[in-house]
Design a protein that fits this description.
The protein has two domains: 51 residues, Multidrug-efflux Transporter Regulator, Chain: A, Domain 2 (Orthogonal Bundle), CATH 1.10.1660; 30 residues. The chain is 55% helix and 13% strand. It contains four helices and three strands; from the N terminus they run E-H-H-E-E-H-H.
Length: 83
């Protein structure tokens, strides 16, 4: 089982080292701490590899996005029926 540094894990995930540290501190990415540095098991990268990029939307932004999406879907549906 290979262990990776934060920098190595970040490179494999395509994110910054700071983002990997945040994932570890939030508990989403398991890691061991040795001498003040996090060490991550290579297989544990799978736990966060398929996450959505960026920060999660706030509740307000999520509601706004849902409202826009549903109105676009309704307007697109009307155009398809008219064809």
């Amino acid at each position: 089982m290979q262990r990776l540094s934060v920098a190595e894990a970040a490179k494999r995930l395509g994110v910054s080292a700071r983002r990997v540290q945040q994932l570890v501190k939030s508990g989403r990415l398991p890691a061991d701490e040795f001498g003040g540095a996090f060490v991550i098991k290579e297989k544990d990268l799978e736990l966060v590899a398929n996450r959505r990029p960026g920060r999660p939307l706030s509740e307000r932004k999520n509601r706004e996005k849902s409202a826009r999406t549903s109105s676009i879907t309704k307007s697109t549906k009307g155009r398809k029926e008219a064809s």
